[in-house]
Each structure stands twice: as structure tokens, then as C-alpha cells.
Amino acid sequence: MTHHIIAVRTYLIIYFALIAFLFATVGASFLPSTAPHLLIAMTIATIKAVLIILFFMHVYYSNRLTWIVAVASLLWLTLLLAFTLADYFSRGWLDIPGK
Amino acid sequence: MSVPAVVVEDPPEDYLQEHTLKSWLLTTDHKRVGILYMISVTVFFFVGGAAATLMRLELMTPRGDVLATPDAYNRLFTMHGVIMIFFFLIPAIPAVLGNFLLPLMIGARDLAFPKLNLMSWYVYIIGGMIGIWIMVFGGVDTGWTFYTPFSTMFSNTMVVTAAVAVFITGFSSILTGLNFVVTVHTMRAPGMTWFRLPLFVWSHYATSLIMILGTPVLAISVVLIALERIFGVGIFDPALGGDPILFQHLFWFYSHPAVYIMVLPGFAVVSEIIPCFARRPIFGYKFIAFSSVAIAIFSFLVWGHHMFVSGQSMYAGMIFSILSFLVAIPSAIKVFNWTATLYKGSIRLDTPMLYALGFIGLFTMGGLTGLMLASLAIDVHVHDTYFIVAHFHYIMVGGTVMAYLGGVHFWWPKISGRMYPEFWGKLSAMLVFVGFNLTFFPQFLLGYLGMPRRYFEYRPEFQVLNVMSTAGASILAIGYVMPLVYMLLSLRKPPNAGPNPWGATGLEWQVESPPPVHNFHDPVVVTCDPYMYSPEEAERDYAHDQHVRNA
Amino acid sequence: MHTTSTSATLDDDQPLLMSHFDDLEQQHDASNLGMWFFLATEVMFFSGMLAAYAIYRSLSPEAFHLGSRHMHLWLGFANTLVLLTSSLTMALGVRASQLGRRNQVVWYLLATAVLGIAFLGVKAVEYTKEINHHLFPGKHFVVPADDAEALMKVSATPEELHLNLGRFQMMFVLYFCLTAVHAFHMIVGIVIVLIMAELMRRKWFSGHGTTQIEVLGLYWHFVDVVWVFLYPLLYLID
Amino acid sequence: MWDFPLFPEQASANAEKLDALMLFELGVLVFFTTLICVLILFFCARYRRGVRVDRSNPPTHGRLMEAIWIIIPFIISAVMFVWATQVFYDLYQPPPDAAEISVVGKQWMWYLQHPQGRSETNDLHVPLGQAVKLNMTSQDVIHSFFIPAMRIKQDVLPGRYTSLWFQPTKVGKYDIFCAEYCGTNHSIMTGYLHVMEPADYEKWLAAEGVGPSRAEEGERLFVQHHCAGCHRESQTVHAPRLEGVYGKPVPIQTDSGVRFATADDRYIRDSILLPKSEVVAGYEPLMPSYKDQISEPDLLKIIAYIKSIANRETSP
Ligand code: HEA
Ligand code: HEA
Ligand code: CUA
Ligand SMILES: [Cu+2]
Description:
The structure holds 4 protein chains of 4 kinds.
Chain A: H1 8-29, H2 37-56, H3 64-89
Helix pairs in contact in A: 1-2
Chain C: E1 6-7, H1 24-59, H2 61-68, H3 73-99, H4 102-132, H5 145-154, H6 158-201, H7 210-235
Chain D: H1 13-46, H2 63-90, E1 99-106, E2 109-113, E3 119-121, E4 123-127, E5 132-138, E6 143-147, E7 152-156, E8 162-166, E9 172-178, E10 191-196, H3 198-206, H4 214-224, H5 227-231, E11 249-253, E12 258-262, H6 265-273, E13 279-280, H7 296-308
Parallel strand pairs in D: 1-5, 4-10
Antiparallel strand pairs in D: 1-2, 2-3, 5-8, 6-7, 6-9, 9-10, 11-12, 11-13
The structure holds heme-A (HEA) (2 copies), dinuclear copper ion and copper (II) ion (CU).
């Protein structure tokens, strides 16, 4: 039962990085409307989430199984989104109502 | 690291010894929780079966006559579906046999979270009570699929209560799954490597993955239904900007994988019974093991095959269709491997084996009709007809219920310490097989003829086939009541089974029956692969026995 | 939790081993893994609503855009800040418990709970504002006049207009669902944090409660991660 | 009693194509089921305990065997998929000369409207050989339009259109079913498809049948054009209920104050075509103009509908 004990310094660095990214998201939302807002916002959110998961939740120091569980749960979320959206986006392809 | 000293007062020897009600209701012993589940799912099975009986009676004639109103019929099939699926079949094998056997099979003293395990039973019972409450005080008439906007805006029955019941029961299934996965990962005995696990454990592992990843989606979709009804906000109602198809996506994202929650444990049981009664190692262990996990993963990618004519895009339909074919292949692998396991065996046709062989035949048939449904054009015709009803009863009743009964007969000596009467066992297995086919085979014909499902009244030309089906159902009913009776009667005798009546391998057979409270007396170390049977040795023993008997 | 077996030595630093585990490492791993799998179910629980969000937003971007203008961007910002900070205090709490500093753990947990409550307070303020503006979906929902007009401009046919008006409400339906479910998780989290703090104070846990606090930390950070996504999705559509 | 059907009638080209595919898949089913059952019975007989046979070295795995029984099902599946998808695809390629019939499902009946103007409920008359395309929508819940003899089915959704087509090849009377569970009387939401000789069909068209009344059709249009979305369950939009409006004085917002206008045919027509001209007091001018969107005959039917609910209470 050996814990990897993370230095306070690391925690603080991550924390301030998170804050910086928070400012970045809000800032980005004021960009002119031509910018790819959704993309930027989601990229930043993902980075933030990854930082929290890796360090606050110690995944970076954990065994492979924890990695797999963490990644798999996100993968499943994507599967649900991808396949459902695939239906909605391909609906207009055929010029037949209802297909 | 030093292990702290543990002072345990001498526990009572076998797990059944304590008799107080409290000792049952507060138990954290996985074996006792398994028994609690066994009693409760049996009750629900007969409640659901009673609903089926009434439905079959109603369908004897084309006009509505047995039940007073179509609403009564609609409530019946909804309750039949909800009870059979959520309160019977999903918990049946995992929560009864899985709970009882999983720790024994991997050489653990209990599941990783014993209290959570007991809690899952209580959660299940609360859900079940709400379910019974609904039946008594009004019922639900949406079908077990809860399709919107009927369920949210039009039905004036107890949909919200039903949503709550399903939501709660879902949690019990999540807890069971969580417990199993963690147990398999962390609590295997020394030497119990992944490829020494009995296939029962592999299948339950795969089942648990689906429970963990799928059930929450069902939970949120019924929550959304409840919210939509309570606040009138139209998440799925086109009148308010919603899309009813979205509900179907969310529902089937769980409910398709859920059909594998129902059948994988059946595979688990059959994979134990077949090698034991063929007295030889199972053929293609790794293929069977991996195909379970493959099914668990790919089952999440085919849900749209329930929606081919729902108005989903044609391209999505094609993707879901081809993926459905692909997910059928791991099932094919299993069927062929089981069959190959009979080759060069020394086969005994005891009751569990009869059930297991019945399972293979009926599952094959149900599965192959599933392929017809996965074929887009055919599904257009047979969708929502009795063809579907026949398909899923072949797999769920012909398949899983058979496997469950086979498993109960197989492990009954272990669970109770007593043998059941072999003659009656065989008779009931045959009755179930015959009755089953008579009930559900005509429904394939009805379906292709075009009789839609969930019909209270139907066209007169369908009557003959319906009468056959009802006749079959009554045989089936006898076949199901019999084991209940003789199993209960067998409890009156003193334990007579001995630790290993079948001469099976597997850790659960190494301890006495019923097993001791802490499962094992000495630390377990596993040194060999599973299913180390030898047909030749079995033959020699048999010849010897015959010899002794004749002398 | 610790009645099944009694430790003879009662060594403070040594966690108790429950009778069905072989050793402490196994016990610790099981708890940790259990929480991770539980979090996987949580992800899927949110994913149903996120799927609804993704679909409706991609079908009616204007409606969602207009809806999000009614969210209180700076309140949300403040709340994100609060929540990130609470994650930091939680992480430090976990660290303290790993080092066996019980008093520190109590204080960090209290700080976490206070920040969590602050978050809920701000959320409550937002909710009141929205409800007062008739933006709570249901019978009393009113599409503000200028939004209705804006939607009229982007809709080619009456059918589309009708749809867009519905989708405008949908934005709020999803906003309330997502944030309420998130808030519910916060409430559960805060209650547990407070209970744990009290138990820590009473030295109830063996082995400094490290396993318990770690597992709690995982849950708390997860709730934080959810918010990290919700904030841009709900407040920052521009 | 014993002459009951075992196979549904074949009354369209699609039915023939589909049955061929079905027979193929049935062959696959029979083949594999028999194979498995025969093998099981054979092994059980041959290797039954006590029977003297060679049981030495039972194989425990076999790459080749596994490969065979993965690849063969795979190939068969691929054939099924391609074939079925082909038939399915054709089901969504209506010929350009198809007659378009509009179908509206409603708890628990079908409204059918022919292009020539004649409409009927639950029965559908079509001429032999003429391709027919159905444009379908629902007024309430999901229904599903199902003609077994044509082997076609399609869900009918509220708030959206779906379509279906068929070409009848045999004169006769065939079942129409609602296949999606839709509430109490789902099982009697049925009807008949009458496939007629073209000449008979012409005669039938000419005869004045008893279709739905104008007001009933008006109600259908009222839903179809989304009026009901605002005027019935006005949740997102604050719009007046139309029950009991016809013939009553209506307060109209003007710059200076409120005046009253009587809700007669003219007023209703203007409200639909030029809604901005007279805005009811207390409401936002949200109603879109339906100018050029609704044909004159339809407009009359809608007005007839609004008239027909003149005596109904305005529900809260
Ligand atoms: C335990 C439950 C269970 C299981 C395991 C399955 C397994 C399968 N199901 Fe089934 N299904 C249901 C329960 C189940 N189903 C239920 C309850 C419904 C209806 C729900 C409702 O609407 O109420 C349904 C509905 C349903 C539909 C939707 C029909 C419709 O509503 O229109 C479809 C469509 O594709 C389908 C397909 C399949 C397929 C391809 C498999 C496959 O996994 C089958 C795989 C097995 C085999 C293929 C047999 C073994 C193989 C061989 C012997 C070798 C030969 C193989 C090949 C040639 C490939 N099922
Ligand atoms: C595990 C799942 C499961 C099981 C085991 C069964 C078992 C049976 N089902 Fe089930 N069925 C479903 C799951 C299941 N069903 C589902 C999901 C649906 C779809 C619902 C929907 O459309 O929403 C369905 C629908 C369904 C229909 C279609 C209804 C319709 O669409 O209109 C029919 C019709 O025949 C039917 C019949 C039967 C029969 C005869 C049995 C038999 O096997 C039952 C045998 C058991 C008994 C006969 C019990 C014996 C005991 C007694 C008789 C004692 C009675 C006691 C008292 C009266 C006190 N079922
Ligand atoms: Cu309409 Cu069923
Ligand atoms: Cu499925």
C-alpha cells in the first residue's frame, strides 16, 4: 500500500494552470463570431479535465487498470454521442422525408 | 507488511445454520444474499407468468372477452414485460447464481463489498415493491419500452411511478455489476490467473461491464420521462421542440446491451454444465472467454436495429444492421464450441444437461431469427409483429430461463446440500421444452403473416395459431411449477448431496455442501486449469460402478 | 464498518483489515477500483443528457445561442473558480491524510465543504433570477419578446419558428436538468465531506482514513470535472 | 377451422423480393439449427456414457476449426446484409410517377387523402399497378402504417413526415394495421387496402363517398400547419386559444388603445394571412403569416374547423 504523495507545489501548479485555462475559455468566448468557439471551448475544457484527472485524481501515478477505466468511460460517452449524432446528421442525405 | 491479528470467534459451520429472520435480513454473506435473491426472483417470475397466463387466455379468441377492456390487456403486457425483464431475468442468473458462486469459484471469502451486496438486494426489493404497488393500484400501459410521446404526454397511468421503480432497480443491478468486476479484479486466490477462471466468471465479468456502462443511461432516460411528465417540458415531445426518436436512442442504448445482460449469464451456466456432463475439458476455452467480452463491448454498437422503421436515417440503419451481424458471430463461436465439447466425451444426460442442451437448440433458433431481424428489409415487414415476440421469447425463455433452471438444478446440491428427484427433474425439462416450442413456434408464423404485437383483438384468421400457442403455454406452466414443488419438498430431507455429487472440477465443489460461512477453511491456492475432466477415467469409473452393482 | 473483525493491536496507523480480504493492499485497491467503476457509471448517467444537448444544439444552434445569453456568465465564472479551488483543498486534504495529519485533513475537508456550499449558494441565486424571469420551463415559461423576434428572423417557415421556440425552451430544460443533477451530486458530496470531517475529528477511522478520504476525493474531483464541461456548454455559447 | 393461412399474401413486387430473401434466410436457419441439433443428438448417442468408443485425447482447441466457424458465418452474414440492404434501399426509391397520398394517423384511426381530393378513413382504395407513395404524419403519438401483403411498414411520427411506397400487383382486399403501440385502441386501429382495377378505381373516385367532414379535415390541417403548436398547448408561445372565438367580439390592440372586432370569416382569414394587421390585445405579434402557404380550399376548411369549435369552452 504505497501511496505516491504528490508535492504541494505540483498541486498548486495544476491549480493555477486550471485558473489560467478558465480565464482563457471566458476570453475565447468573446472572440469575434467567426472563430470556432465550440472547438476552442471544448479543447480547453478537455485539457482542464485531463489535468484534474491526472493529478488531482492521481491517475498519472496509478496502475494501468485505472487508466483503462478512466479512458473507457469517456470512450463510451463518445460512442453514445457519435452514433446518435450520426443518425441525425445523415437524415437529410436522402431526399425522402423520414429517412 | 504485517497482517494485523484477526480474532474471529468460531463461526457456525455451514452458512445455512443460523435460522433467525434477522440473520437473513442483515446478512452480508454472498451466499445468503444469493438465496434472498432466489426467493424474490421466483416470486416475480410467477407474478409475471400469471400475467402471461391471463394474456394467453385473452388471446384464445380474436375478440376481447376474458379481460373486460383493452386497457386491462395493455396494462398486463406492460407489467409482464417490465416484471419479467427488470425484476426477473436481469437479476435471475447474476444475482442468484452469480452471487452465490462467483466468490467460491475464484477462491475468495466474499465479494469485495459485502454490505453493498446486501444493499443491492434491498434496493431491488424497494423497486419491486413499487412495481407491485403499481400493479395493484392502477398499472402502466406504455409497454416495457416506454416510447414517447405516448408515455409522457398521452398515457394517464402510473408512468412516473414505473419510472421510479425502474430507476431504483437499475441501481441494484449497477451495484451487483460493480461488486463483481471489482471482486474479479482484486480478489482472485493465488494462482487463479485470468485463464484459469471458470468461464462462468468470464461471462459474469462481461455482464457486469454492461451493467456498469449501460444501466445509468436507462436511469437517466426514465428520469427524463418522469421530469417531462411532472413539469410538462417536452424533452421528447415534438409539440415542444423535442424529438421522440431521441428517447428511443437512449432507451435502446441500454436495452440492447441489456439483452446480453440477460443471455451472457445463460452462457455462463451452460459453459459449466456442458463440460461437467460430457466429462471432458471445454473446447476452445479462450475463444469462449474472449467472445463474452467481445459481446459485451460490441453490444453497445447495435442498438439502432430496434429502430429500423422508426424514422431514423437509412444510413444509420445500415450501420446498425451490419454491426448486428458482426455481434452475432461471437455467439456463433460459443454455440459451435459447446457442440464440439460433446465430441469424444462421456456424456450423462442428467437434468442440468438436458436443460443445457435445450438451451443450445433454442438459443440457436432464437439467435438465427435475430439475424433475420437484423436484415433491414425483413425487419421492415416483421418489426412489431409476433415474429419479434417469438424471437425474444426463444432467447429469453427458451434460452436464459432454461439455463437458469439448468443452473439451479446443477448447483442445488451445493446451495441446499440436497439432491432433487432426478425423475421429476427430467420430466420437467422435457415438459418445458415441448411446451415452450408449442407456445412460441406458432408465433413466428403469426408474425410473418402480419399479426402485430400488443394486440388485444385480432383478425379471425389468426385464431388457430393463437389457440396452439395458448395450449403450449399451459404445458409450459406445468413444467415451471413442477421444479418449484419438488425443490421445496427436497428441503425436508436431511442433507444428502455430499460435497461433489457430479464429480465436477471447480473450487466451489471442493468445499462441503452447503458451504461453510467463510467459504474455505484453508487458504486456497490454484495450481491447474479449469475443466480438467477425463472422459476415459469417467468411463473406467462408470464401468467399475456397474461392476460393483452387478456383483 | 469495522465490526467484523477486531484488531488485537489497535495500532493507530494501521488500517483494519476486513475479514474477507487477504491483505491491506487488496482492500485498498478494491475500494479505489470500486470508486473508479462507479465514476464510470456516473459518466454514463450524465451522458444521456449530454446527448440530448448535443443533438438539440446542433439542430437549432440559434435557439441555444439566444438561450445561453440569459445565463449569468460571471456568476458561472465565479462558481467555476470556487469549484476549482474546492478541488485544490480536497486534493490537499487527501495528501494530508496520506501523510497521517488528521487535523489538517479536518480543516481541508471543512474548507472544501464551505466552498461547495458557496457554489450551491451562487447556483441558488442564479436559479431565482431565472425563475423570476419566467425562464423556468413548464407552464410559466415565456419566451422573451426580443428572442422570439430574433427566432422569427432565422426561421423560414412557421413550422420552423414553432420548432425554434420549442428549442429555445429546450435549452433551459437541459440547463436546469444538467445543473440540477450536478447540484444534487454536490449536495451528496458536501454531506459526505462533512460526515467524514466529523469522523476524522473523532479519530473514527483506523489508518488515518486514507482509503476513505482518497475515494471521497475521487468523487469530488469527478463532480468538478463535470462542471468544467458544463460551464462552457451552457454559459459560453457565443 | 383448419384451413388457416401459413404464409401471407404476396401483392407487390417488394413482397416477392422480400419473400425470396426470407426463404434464403430460412434456409440458413434450418441448416444451422438442424446441424447443431443433429450434432448434439449424434454425439449424445455415440458418446453416451457406457458406450464403448474411442475417447482418447479429446481435442481442447483447434485454430482451424475456430477459423472455419468464424469465417463461414461471417460470409453468410455478409450475403444476408448486402441482399437485405439492397431490398431495403429499393423500398425508399419511389418511382417518380407515384401517386402521392397523404396519411394522417391519429388515436385510433387513419385519415387518407387522395391527390384528386377525395379522402377516406381507415380504408384505402388504390388502382392496380399504380405506384403509390404515402406521405405520413401523426397528430398525437407514434403510430406505424403496416400492410402485410405489401411487406411494408413505417412509423408515423408526430411533428415530422415519413414516407412509404408500394406498387400493388394483385387485386384484392388487404389488411392495414397500426403496428406501433399507441394506447387503448391500438388493436382496432386497422383498416383495409382495396386494390381495384383502374376502371373501378375511376368509378370509385367519381362517386361521392362519406369522407370526413370539412371541419374534421380542417382540424387535421390545423395540426399539420402547426397552428395547434401555438394555439393548443401554448407553452413556449403565449397565443390565444381558439375555442369559442368564432362570432365573438375580439379586443384588438391599436396605437391609441383597444377596439373590438367581430371574429367572422373575414377576420379569421386576415388573422391567418395578415396576422400583423390586427393583433389581439394582450398578446405579442408573434403569429407568422401564412400567406402563400395555405391553399384557398384548405383555408376554408380551417375556418370551418374554427367555426366548429365556436361553442366549445375556452379551456384554461
Ligand atoms: C436475451 C435476449 C436477446 C438476445 C441474446 C438477442 C440476440 C439478438 N437479437 Fe434480439 N431482441 C430481444 C432479445 C434478445 N435478442 C428482445 C427482447 C427484442 C425486442 C424488444 C422489444 O421490442 O420489445 C429483440 C429484438 C431484436 C431486433 C429488433 C426487431 C424489431 O423490433 O424490429 C433485432 C434486429 O436486429 C434483434 C436482433 C438480434 C440479433 C442479431 C441477436 C444476436 O445476438 C443473436 C446471435 C446468435 C446467433 C446468430 C445464433 C448462434 C449462431 C449460429 C448457430 C451460427 C450461425 C451464425 C451465422 C450464420 C451468423 N433482436
Ligand atoms: C424474461 C422474460 C420473459 C418471460 C420469461 C416471458 C414468458 C412468457 N411470455 Fe412474455 N414477454 C416478455 C418477456 C418475457 N415473457 C416481454 C419483454 C414482452 C414484451 C412486452 C411488451 O410488449 O411491452 C413479452 C410479451 C409477451 C407476449 C406478447 C403480448 C403482446 O404483444 O400483445 C406474449 C403473448 O403470448 C407473451 C407470452 C409469454 C408466455 C406464455 C410466457 C411463459 O413462458 C410464461 C410461463 C410461466 C408461467 C405460465 C407461470 C406459471 C405459474 C402459474 C400459472 C401460477 C399462476 C399463479 C396464480 C395465478 C396465482 N409474452
Ligand atoms: Cu396507432 Cu397503434
Ligand atoms: Cu437488440
